[in-house]
Amino acid sequence: MARAAPGGRYEGRFEGRFEGRVAVVTGASRGIGLAVARRLAAEGARVCLTARRPEPLEEAAATLPPGSAMTVAGTVGSPAHRREVLEAVLRTWGRLDVLVLNAGINPAYGPLLELDHDLALKVLEVNVLAPLAWVRDAVGLDPDGFAARGCVVTMTSVTGATPAPGIGMYGVSKAALAHLTRTLAAEAAPALRVNAVSPAVVRTQFSRVLYEGKEAEVASRYPAGRLGEPDDVAAAVAYLASDDARWVTGEVLVVDGGLGVAGGTA
What is the pLDDT of residue 47? Predict the structure, then answer.
């Protein structure tokens, strides 16, 4: 098994699994996205990291092996940003193999019946429609490469299968993203493989409202005895993006520390 080494490197039998391959990871300046970028780079990939703000993005890229990363800052839902990213990758490295659609938002906390309509639309735009647009654009800009042999991994959530208090619209969007993933897998086969990873609560800044000040209590609901770490999710993404999963498509891989089998909710 691969294991984390100091500085975000990985050691073990998976080294070199992505040698010669190129990946784009959205929402990659911190948390799960950064862990995914580090994991792919540690296994040999060249990785383009994207996120909204350039400074944190550059800091994140500096933690990857020298020469393995580039960054393009911008808004995930922007057509101009998507084109800039994809064109930069193809111009610099000549190919695109893996598209990891990790970026997502949850700008509201509370019951669905009290949710502002414009916020609901924004959640759907970023969490569902933007991933679809990224895949469309990648296929359109690289018809002889990515469109013929690419791999897509989306980031859903256990809240898309089991409602969680306070984050209902986020769960709705992730349920839609899971179905989008399966539909794309069916429609784009065999040229593209499309899968998803569905985490429970992972210890990131994005999820802190779900565990901050009560981590021991929340973790006690997990048979694994702890919350997830970004590296736990990154390992699942790396599997789905690799040739080890070459006969896997249209799947939503749950990474939840056993929460589901225990009947818990995020």
Answer: 98
